[in-house]
Structure formats: structure tokens, C-alpha cells
Design brief:
Layout (H helix, E strand, L loop, with lengths): L23 E3 L4 H10 L3 E4 L14 E4 L7 E4 L4 E5 L4 H10 L2 E2 L11 H6 L16 E7 L5 E5 L5 H4 L8 E8 L1 E2 L2 E11 H6 L1 H5 L4 E6 L6 E10 L39 E2 L19 E8 L3 H10 L1 H4 L3 E9 L14 E8 L3 H15 L5 E2 L10 H8 L3 H11 L8 H6 L2
Parallel strand pairs: 1-3, 2-3
Antiparallel strand pairs: 4-5, 5-9, 6-10, 7-8, 7-9, 11-13, 11-14, 12-13, 12-16, 15-17, 15-18, 16-17
């Protein structure tokens, strides 16, 4: 088996707020080597792009690097799916699809994340009618704790439980994703919208484009600092001349105030390929130095306005620690542990300054404010783990079904870690 030295880079996450505890790191170059690594491990977890802010991927056993497995992309035009390696990044897959006339329905803010990791944590982009990245999964292949290679496809009994898996079921070696004919997108940024008017008809604002994001610093609680509207080029009509009196920006903007927009995807209404507009940031840039922390809570759409008002009330406490807050919409799905399970949701995302003690002290206050509205945390971000084993079954109706699936696929507990145990698994 090919192994790596335990370098500082491998042992830290993207934001460098976490140092992993793995005793050993292995870098399999084939499925056979991967199976050997899993079979011989008492505890193991997979590391992909490491764009994660909590210990969901940590282990005191063996870390398996997914990016060293062969990168493959196979397009099945008849079925309208692409089969791709789980360790491949979206930014690596997207241009290949586009060259063949295909696209994914959506992408996250960053194209730098791996397919398997993004799917396993329910990561998403934005769009009233578009689901999370996990909702595009039509099939997946995984190596389970006993070293068996299993394939599950949409419609199979365990499929809806296995997609958003928290890394608890095995190593996902490949995914099949739904694809659509390629398309172009143009994005326009509007500045300084009145929040009261936005919340008076939130559906009208989020419906302005194929994908819509709102950015707040909460320094002025009554103002939405930026509205990013991403419209398909083949959509009827043009982007509006103004939104609630807010005019389009006359120059390219970064979501953070006073930060260069060089790393951001092109704006100013210029059409471009879907993969060069749906993310906020370009693949060829690292969007920041990792000097940030992130949290996100997804609330059922009917509760969104009330939940946003709760954050507005907390603005004096939130703003000093905040870089920016983003609001996005995600369509419902049927995946058991998806934050959008059985309901359309609005994501309230926080990009924090890198002050983890202060952020972690504030999170219980935010979660208490959002709890009456059914807020579900993003699995890969910072949230309060204390008491999670009691809270999560109330938020996820299929929680016990997932626990049973996990016990069946991983009876040895190979993929368990402290994070899962604190969730009650």
C-alpha cells in the first residue's frame, strides 16, 4: 500500500482551525488498496478536500486520502447521468461535462470541494427549484467496513439513507450524478436593499433568478448589503434594472466588504458557462487564506422570515464576530439526513472571523433563537454538539432508520468517531 508521511498539511483542515488526530495516513491508488486499508483498520475515516470546520472526518485511527484514487469520469447520455470518482472535485468534473454538452443542475459557492464529501454532508448551492448537491445523486458505490464493494441506486431500499451519510457507512468510491444539457448563466449584484421590504415578500426576491444569494454584515441591521442574482441566459426577460430600489453594482464585487473581487466569478450581467457563474469563486483561486470559521442553519421555508428576524435581533452580538452572513434557498428532497429532508429550506450561513472560542460561545445563543423554527445545522460546519443526541431525532424523522442502517453496514464501528458518538450513533 502506498502511504504518505503525516504532513502538517494533511493533518489540518482547510481553515486550519482543526488538527486531525489520525495515527496513520494512507493514500490508496486503487480500489484493491483501499479495500485492504479498510479491512485492516479498527478505526478509519476518509479525507477529501478537507473543507470542513468540525471533527466529522477526524479519527484516532487511519485517515484514508480519497484524492489519490484514480480520477474517472464516465458520461451516460442515455441515462443522463455521469459516474465520477468520489474524490474528484466539482471544479475538475464540471469542465469535462461542459465540453460534452452537459451540466450539473447546481454547484456550491466553492468548486474546490470533493464530490463524496459534499454529498455526505448535504452541501448545497442556491435556488428555489434546485436541490442540494446530494439530491443530484442517482447512485453511489462504497466500500463498507467488511471490505465489500456495494452499489446503491435511486429506488433501492437503503438509497435515501446512504446518500447524506456523514461518512458513517463506508468509503464512497464513485457517485452517479444527474446531468442536464449545458447552459449559460449571467449574474448581477445589487447593493443595499431594505431588509424589511425583502422580508415582506421573500419569495419574490429569491425567485428573481435561477440561483439567488443575499449577503449581510449585520452592521446595519436594516440593510441587505448585496443581492447576487444568477439567471439562466435562456430565461425569459432581462435582469431587473433595480430590486426594491437597489441598483446593480457598476463594478465586480466580493461578498466581503473592501476585499478584492479578483477571485470571484464574473458578474455585471455577462453570460458565461454554468460552472463559471454558479459558484461564487473561481477554481483557479483560493477564495481566502482559510482565515475564517463557518456555521450554517437551514430552516423550513415557512419559518424563514421569523428566523431571519431572530438573527437581526442578535445583530449587536453577531456583527463583531462576523465576516459575512449569506441567505440561500434549497429545494426539498427525500434523503434521510439531508437538512432539506421533506421541506424547502432557507440556509442562514455565517462566515466568522477566526476566533473559535468566541464563536463557540455565541453558537448556543444563535441555536436557542432558531430552535423554535426547526433549524437543522449543516453537518460540515461548526454547531453545538452538546445535547445533539437528544435534538437530532426530533429534527430528522428517519434518524433511527439511519442508525439501523449504520449498524448493519458498519457492525465493527470502523467509521465511528467522537463526532458520530456525540450525535448518538
Amino acid at each position: 500500500m502506498t502511504s504518505t508521511a503525516p504532513t502538517a498539511d494533511v493533518h489540518r483542515n482547510w481553515a486550519s482551525n482543526l488538527e486531525y488526530r489520525a495515527a496513520r495516513v494512507v493514500a490508496p491508488t486503487s480500489t484493491e488498496e483501499l479495500i485492504d486499508a479498510v479491512r485492516s483498520a479498527s478505526r478509519a475515516k476518509v479525507l477529501g478536500s478537507r473543507h470542513c470546520f468540525n471533527t466529522i472526518a477526524d479519527t484516532d485511527g487511519v485517515h484514508i486520502l480519497s484524492g489519490t484514487l484514480p480520477a474517472t469520469v464516465e458520461i451516460d447520455s442515455a441515462r443522463r447521468v455521469v459516474r465520477a470518482s468520489g474524490g474528484l472535485r466539482y471544479g475538475g468534473l464540471a469542465p469535462v461535462l461542459d465540453r460534452e454538452g452537459w451540466a450539473l443542475a447546481n454547484l456550491a459557492s466553492l468548486p474546490h470541494i470533493s464530490l463524496a464529501g459534499a454529498v455526505a454532508t448535504g452541501t448545497h448551492g442556491s435556488g428555489d427549484a434546485v436541490g442540494s448537491l446530494a439530491s443530484a445523486v442517482a447512485g453511489l458505490e462504497l466500500v463498507t467496513a467488511d471490505g465489500e464493494l456495494q452499489t446503491l441506486r435511486r429506488g433501492d431500499a437503503d438509497f435515501d439513507g446512504a446518500v447524506v451519510s456523514l461518512g458513517a457507512l463506508g468509503v464512497v468510491t464513485a457517485v452517479e450524478l444527474d446531468i442536464v444539457p449545458t447552459f449559460e448563466v449571467a449574474q448581477t449584484v445589487y447593493e443595499r436593499l431594505p431588509l424589511d421590504e425583502v422580508l415582506a415578500d421573500l419569495d419574490a426576491v429569491t425567485g428573481l433568478g435561477y440561483s439567488v444569494s443575499m449577503f449581510h454584515t449585520w452592521r446595519d441591521p436594516g440593510i441587505v448589503d448585496q443581492l447576487w442574482v444568477k439567471r439562466r441566459a435562456d430565461a425569459a426577460g432581462d435582469a431587473p434594472d433595480d430590486v426594491l430600489g437597489a441598483a446593480p453594482a457598476t463594478a465586480k464585487r466580493h461578498p466581503l466588504p473592501d476585499v478584492s473581487a479578483e477571485s470571484c466569478t464574473d458578474q455585471l450581467g455577462r453570460p458565461g458557462p454554468w460552472y463559471a457563474r454558479l459558484p461564487h469563486f473561481k477554481l483557479e483561486f483560493t477564495p481566502s487564506n482559510g482565515d475564517e470559521l463557518q456555521s450554517e442553519y437551514l430552516v423550513p421555508r415557512p419559518n424563514a422570515v421569523a428566523a431571519i428576524q431572530q438573527i437581526r435581533a442578535l445583530a449587536p452580538r453577531v456583527a463583531p464576530l462576523l465576516q459575512v452572513c449569506e441567505l440561500r434557498t434549497v429545494a426539498r428532497d427525500g434523503l434521510w439526513l439531508s437538512p432539506a429532508y421533506d421541506t424547502d429550506v432557507v440556509g442562514i450561513h455565517f462566515t466568522w472571523k477566526p476566533d473559535q472560542p468566541e464563536v463557540e460561545a455565541l453558537l448556543p445563543v444563535i441555536e436557542a433563537a432558531l430552535e423554535p423554527y426547526g433549524a437543522r445545522p449543516h453537518w460540515g460546519k461548526l454547531f453545538v454538539l452538546d445535547g445533539a443526541a437528544d435534538r437530532m431525532p426530533r429534527l430528522y424523522p428517519r434518524w433511527s432508520d439511519f442508525a439501523a442502517l449504520r449498524d448493519r453496514l458498519d457492525p465493527r464501528g470502523v467509521f465511528r468517531n467522537d463526532f458520530l458518538e456525540r450525535l448518538g450513533f
